[in-house]
Amino acid sequence: MQTIGERLEDARKQKGISIRESAEATKIRGEYLQKFESNHFDLGLSEIYVRGFLRTYANFLKLPAERILNDYASLGHSETRPRQPNREIYGRMDVSVASAGERGDRSTPPPTESAKEAPRNQPKQSRSRTNLPAAPILDPALVLKVGKIAAAVLVLVLVIWGAKSIIGGISGSAAKPTALPPVATQAAAEPTITVVALDAVRVKIATVADGRVLLDATLSRGQTQVLPWPGELYITATAGENLQIEASGKRFGTGFKGYNRGKLPAPGGL
C-alpha cells in the first residue's frame, strides 16, 4: 500500500507539474510540499494549518482529500482540544479561603470577664429634683384662633401660587409652537457578496480599482465568507469549480475550473 507522500508525488508527476508550479497554484511553500511527499508532516505549525495545507494539496492533485486526511490521522496526528481546568485547584482555593476566615475569627480575642462586668459596676444615675418655676399655661382658645389664622393664610398663598402657575403655563404653551420630531433617515446598506466553498479551495479576492485585498484564505467545504462589494472585483481560486458567489440575490459559479482568475462586475452590473 502506498504512503501518503508516495500518492501525492505520483499524482503530481502524472500531471507533469513541478514542486514550484504546485506551490504557486496552491499558495503553499514548496518546502512544505516536499515534506508532504517525503512523509514528513512536522512543519512547526499548528495542526489545523497542516491539515488545511494537506487538504488543499490533495484537492489540487485531484486526490480524495478525506481519505488522505484519514490516513494522516491514523499516523497519530489529530486536532488538539483545550484542557479542562482541574477541579482540585478550586477545591484548594475554597479551603484556603475558609482557613483565612477561621484565622480572622481566631485573631479577635473574646471579651474578658472584667469587660463583661464593667457595665454592672457603673453607678446608676439618680433623678434629681429641680426648684425651677413652672411654665405659664397658655389659653387653649387663643392657640386655636392663631392656628385658624395661619391655616387661612397658607391656603390663600397656595391658591395664588396655583393660579399663577396655570396662567403662566397657558401663555407659555400658546407662545411656543409645537416642535415636530426630526425625520430619521436611514443610510443605504452597503452591498455585499457571499463566498461559498463547495469543497476545499484557496481564494483571493481584491478590488480592481486599487488592488485592496478583501479575502486571502483557504476555505473548507461548506464554509462561507461575507465581504463588502465596493466595485469590480478580481476573484482568484485554486479550484474554481469549488467556489460559488451570492450577489444581488443570485448565486452563480466562477465560470472557470482549476487555478484561474475571474472578474465580478460592480453592483448593478449583473
Give a description of the structure:
The protein is an alpha+beta fold and 270 residues long. Among the domains are: 71 residues, lambda repressor-like DNA-binding domains (434 Repressor (Amino-terminal Domain)), CATH 1.10.260.40; 73 residues, Immunoglobulin-like, CATH 2.60.40. The chain is built from eight helices and eight strands. A four-stranded antiparallel beta sheet has the order 4-1-6-7, with no helix packed on it. It has a four-stranded antiparallel beta sheet with strand order 3-2-5-8. The longest helix has 36 residues. The chain is elongated, with a radius of gyration of 44 Å. It starts with a helix and ends in a 6-residue tail after the last strand.
The CATH class designation of the domain at 192-264 is Mainly Beta
Helix content: 40-55%
C-alpha Rg (nearest Å): 44 Å
Strand content: 15-25%
Number of helices, where a helix is a run of at least 4 consecutive DSSP H or I residues:
8
pLDDT averaged residue by residue: 76
Please identify the structural class as seen in this structure. alpha+beta
Question: Judging from the principal axes of the Cα atoms, what is the shape?
Answer: elongated
Low-confidence stretches: 81-119, 121-126, 183-187
Q: If strands are numbered along the chain, what order do they take across the biggest sheet?
A: 4-1-6-7
Element-level helix/strand string? HHHHHHHHEEEEEEEE
CATH architecture of the domain at 192-264: Sandwich
Q: How many beta strands in the DSSP annotation?
A: 8
Give the N-to-C terminal Cα separation. Answer: 50 Å
> Which sheet architecture does the biggest sheet show?
4 strands, antiparallel
CATH topology heading of the domain at 192-264? Immunoglobulin-like
